[in-house]
Write a structure and sequence with these properties.
The structure holds two protein chains of two kinds. Chain A has eleven helices and eleven strands. Chain A has helices at about 5, 15-30, 45-75, 95-125, 125-130, 135-145, 270-285, 290-295, 300-305, 310-315, 315-335; strands at about 155-160, 170-180, 180-185, 190-195, 195-200, 205-210, 215-220, 225-230, 235-240, 245-250, 260-270. In chain A, strand 2 (about 170-180) and strand 3 (about 180-185) form a beta hairpin. The model of chain A is unreliable at about 130-155, about 290-300 and about 310-315 (pLDDT under 50). Chain B is mostly helical. Chain B has helices at about 10-20, 40-70, 80-115, 125-145, 160-165, 165-200, 210-240, 255-290, 295-310, 325-355, 360-385, 385-395, 395-425, 435-460, 475-505. In chain B, helix 3 (about 80-115) runs parallel beside helix 6 (about 165-200), helix 7 (about 210-240) packs antiparallel against helix 8 (about 255-290) and helix 8 (about 255-290) packs antiparallel against helix 9. The longest helix of chain B is centred in the N-terminal third of the chain and has 37 residues, at about 80-115. The chains are: A alpha/beta, B mainly alpha. At the A-B interface, helix 3, helix 4, helix 5, strand 8 and strand 10 of A face helix 3, helix 8, helix 9, helix 10 and helix 11 of B.
Chain lengths: ~325, ~550
């Protein structure tokens, strides 16, 4: 934006051009080199969010350089000289310039709004509510007959990408948030776990509900987050694109140990995932579900996770399993 | 008390009547002890607001220090998590409701608006005093809540957490916020009527100082939005204490409705905290640049535009909540639109400086610091306004970094600019410019060191409002803590400066900055009823380079 040079008499078009080129180059460079600020990309949504962020920061850097540059330039060039007791030339405004610096940001934000909407659609953000909110009863009826009976859970959150809207997810997991833990229930396999295991490259749908207070389910590597609310089921659909272990973070203040409400998501290859499923499904069949959780290897890391403040909270292995059995009962009723 | 001349408008006479009806009489000048008791003079009330607010600023600042010490390490080691949450909640509450809002609107608004429009006082002086005295009452409730564990659910107090945590403290917190809300409504009403009715007839609307326009826009916004917050909080109070279930899911209540009620006020509250500051900027920048304000009408219209659009953006605080997709998109677009009038203001101030003769006074340094950082905060705000990006960074430290850039780098810098600019008028004493420059330098460095790294912490995955965090974030958190210590230190030169100058500083001339607005055309500090007779407005408030000033050689502005 050259408006700041508009009034000036000395710098010619070459000067303006040089500033313009420099600002453009720096802004593009900054926008292209932001990956260090972000965790790795591990879902289909992540590159979409990062591209939007790159564009926002490119435009933002240009605005920052021009505006703050103009301020610093003015501070130096137009500083008061000792002994000068006169006032500056009384320029009260410049209508074309004012129209210019109103119109350009307006055009930029309208462009951003449209682009942002498009990115949001690609991410699946418009899928769950857009169809059902204003929908007629017949539409609702169709949803009722769809494979997913919990149509309520489709109202809020991140749904399927536009090309997957009529495809049921490959895996559905019921997620329960409670002070201060996450519980993952695999209804088909009958598994209850303190950590989330999913296969890479598959459509996964989480159905999220809280039993006590608000929580928020966030996987920074996936770039998506959804509040988990009591009485208002929400959903999150994603495709993990990388195998590995990523943090699950609670992002909504949920009480004193909110900062400790962390878990992990294991993104496996299909073979690893099948093996995990088999091992745990057998365990679930052979033993009482509560014991399964208690003896399962998964809760070792639960204990690790609880260890630093287990004395404060009074949570040990037994209470954890109690909480989990309680929670599974609650979860069942919550999804009735 | 000067006799009202027959030529003056009747409302000016009605102020006189108000005084007469109350049997109101006053001494020649206020003594120090008058400031500690009920007083209807808008200037006393203004200073009462600023000093009370500053005390709360110190308390809120100490809580911030404790928070930063806790976050120096990833584990819980300095505060218990309950105390941490209580400090985090009340740090936010105090800084918003007890520092920025009362000092910017109550403090500067009360002191300046009647002077700037040439009035003797506010339209309703008793209402004004009552509005102020609600603040100490509210403060007592808030301090009282700490005897019951303190409110621990964030300044947002989202149910169901707020219904099940520290009930007595939470109830006292609600009462306290309802008190300051009431104070804000009463004050706003007063500002609207004062500007509307008591402006001297010789002042055209296009000659009204931009600070008054800003306070007018702020007051209208407060009048529309504050009652909604009060409603939401009172329903919450009933849920906590009287067994109702408005926000209790197990009784069929809806947790998201509270969020709508809360943010319908609390997003406009962001503008309550920045519009008066924009007003301060529009006064400080032209005076110290020795040049008329660039685009007076554009700044007036942009205040009104921010006021109007600001009422329909609140759901951007709820992009990850129980919010349908179409609503997320609608509020993305309205949110982005706010950037346009805000940009107009920033560009107008840069335009004012451009071609000026800028004096590096402390007031101007803080104003320039605000400009430099508000651009960063504004750009961060535009990124957050995009729902797809917000899904990643919502409720992360990115948000914390952003709102501290606009509230500390913006509002607090603006309040400092205002204090350095109007201190001579308020107290009749000059502040020391060297200590002021040290204060500026420490504050500017501290602000950027504290709040910039927070953006990166958020992007990398650190949630906000946590007492314990993943060890991978430790290094940046230590940097942030060092920055906050510099901010803590920055208060010392300021406190020394203010106290020393107030007690034993150099006497201020009536118009040390050679300014043209009406408050500088009376004595420093102004006489009790401001002007000996109604001032006659003959020129615009920013006609620098047009109006010839009577310059006395002794006046030094740098």
């Amino acid at each position: 934006m050259q408006q700041n040079h508009h009034e000036e008499t000395i710098p010619g078009s070459m000067w303006t051009l040089a500033v313009g080129v420099l600002v453009t180059v720096i802004s593009l460079w900054v926008g292209k080199n932001l990956s260090w600020t972000m965790p790795e990309q591990a879902s289909l949504q992540a590159p979409l969010v990062d591209n939007l962020f790159d564009i926002l920061i490119t435009i933002g850097t240009a605005l920052f350089l021009l505006t703050d540059g103009a301020i610093i330039y003015a501070l130096i060039k137009f500083r008061h000289r000792p002994g000068d007791e006169t006032d500056a030339a009384p320029i009260k405004g410049n209508l074309p310039l004012e129209i210019f610096w109103t119109a350009i940001p307006a055009i930029i934000v309208i462009f951003l709004g449209i682009y942002s909407t498009d990115v949001f659609r690609e991410m699946g953000g418009l899928e769950p509510p857009g169809h059902h909110m204003g929908g007629s009863h017949s539409e609702m009826a169709q949803v009722m007959t769809a494979p997913d009976p919990d149509n309520e859970s489709s109202k809020y959150g991140v749904g399927a990408a536009p090309d997957k809207q009529n495809v049921p997810a490959d895996l559905q997991v019921k997620v329960t948030g409670l002070q201060f833990a996450w519980l993952f229930n695999y209804p088909e396999a009958g598994i209850m776990s303190g950590e989330l295991h999913v296969p890479v490259g598959k459509e996964v749908k989480l159905e999220l509900v809280a039993t006590d207070v608000l929580h928020a389910f966030w996987v920074p590597q996936f770039r998506i987050k959804q509040d988990v609310m009591p009485g208002k089921p929400s959903q999150m659909r994603f495709v993990a694109t990388k195998t590995g272990v990523f943090p699950i973070v609670c992002a909504e203040l949920c009480g004193s140990y909110h900062g400790g409400m962390r878990s992990k998501i294991y993104v496996h290859t299909q073979e690893e995932y099948d093996a995990w499923l088999e091992e745990n499904a057998i365990a679930a069949k052979n033993q009482d579900a509560v014991e399964t959780v208690a003896v399962n290897t998964q809760d070792l890391s639960d204990e690790e996770f609880l260890a630093p403040y287990s004395s404060d909270l009074g949570i040990d292995r037994d209470t954890l399993s109690e909480i989990k059995s309680l929670a599974s009962a609650i979860t069942e009723t919550a999804y009735q | 008390m000067t006799q009202t001349k027959p030529s003056q408008i009747t409302v000016a006479g009605s102020v006189e009547n108000t005084h007469a009806n109350n049997g109101h009489s006053h001494p020649e000048k206020w003594e120090w002890y008058h400031y500690f008791w009920y007083n209807t003079d808008h200037k006393v009330i203004g200073i009462q607001y600023i000093v009370t607010a500053f005390m709360f600023y110190l308390i809120g600042g100490l809580m911030a220090m404790a928070i930063r010490i806790e976050l120096f390490t990833p584990d819980v080691d300095f505060l218990s998590p309950e105390v941490y949450n209580a400090f985090m909640t009340n740090h936010g509450t105090i800084m918003i409701f007890y520092w920025i809002v009362p000092s910017a609107i109550g403090g500067f608004g009360n002191f300046l608006v009647p002077l700037m429009v040439g009035a003797k006082d506010m339209a309703y002086p008793n209402l004004n005093a009552i509005a102020f005295w609600l603040n100490p009452l509210a403060g007592a409730f808030l301090i009282g809540s700490f005897f019951f564990g303190g409110s621990q659910t964030g300044w947002t107090a989202y149910p169901p957490l707020s219904i099940i945590t520290a009930n007595t403290a939470q109830s006292l917190w609600i009462l306290s916020i309802v008190c300051v809300g009431t104070s804000s409504i009463l004050g706003s009403l007063n500002f609207v009527i004062t500007t509307w009715k008591l402006k001297v007839p010789t002042m055209k609307w296009t000659q009204l100082p931009l600070f008054c326009w800003a306070i007018l826009a702020t007051s209208l916004l407060a009048l529309v939005s504050t009652p909604v917050l009060a409603a939401g909080l009172i329903l919450l109070l009933f849920d906590i204490n009287f067994g109702t279930g408005f926000f209790r899911p197990e009784m069929g209540g809806d947790v998201v409705v509270y969020q709508h009620l809360f943010w319908f006020y609390s997003h406009p509250a962001v503008y309550l905290m920045i519009l008066p500051i924009f007003g301060i900027m529009s006064e400080v920048v032209p005076v110290h640049s020795r040049k008329p304000i660039f685009g007076y009408m554009a700044i007036v219209y942009s205040s009104m535009a921010i006021c109007a659009v600001g009422l329909i953006v609140w759901v951007h605080h709820m992009f990850t909540s129980g919010t349908p997709g179409w609503m997320r998109m609608f509020f993305t677009i309205t949110t982005l639109l706010v950037a346009v009038p805000t940009g107009v203001k920033i560009f107008s101030w840069v335009g004012t400086m451009w071609g000026g003769k800028i004096r590096y006074t402390c007031a101007m340094l803080f104003a320039v610091g605000l400009l430099l950082m508000f651009v960063v905060g504004g750009i961060g705000g535009v990124t957050l306004g995009n729902a797809p990006f917000d899904l990643h960074v919502h409720d992360s430290y990115y948000v914390v970094g952003h709102f501290h850039y606009v509230l500390f780098g913006g509002s607090v810098f603006g309040i400092y600019a205002g204090i350095y600019h109007w201190f001579p008028k308020m107290t009749g004493k000059m502040l020391d410019e060297r200590l002021g420059r040290a204060h500026f330098l420490l504050t500017f460095i501290g602000t950027n060191l504290t709040f910039f790294p927070m953006h990166i912490l958020g992007l990398q995955g650190m949630p906000r409002r946590v007492a314990l965090y993943d060890p991978q974030f430790a290094e940046l958190n230590q940097l942030v803590t060092y920055g906050s210590m510099i901010l803590g230190l920055s208060l010392f030169p300021f406190l020394v400066n203010v106290i020393w100058s107030w007690v034993a500083g150099e006497d201020a001339p009536d118009n040390p900055w050679e300014a043209l607005t009406l408050e500088w055309q009376t004595t420093s500090p102004p006489a009790i009823e401001n002007f000996d007779e109604d001032p006659i407005v003959t020129h615009g408030p920013y006609d620098y380079g047009i109006v010839k000033l009577n310059r006395t050689p002794a006046e030094v502005s740098e």
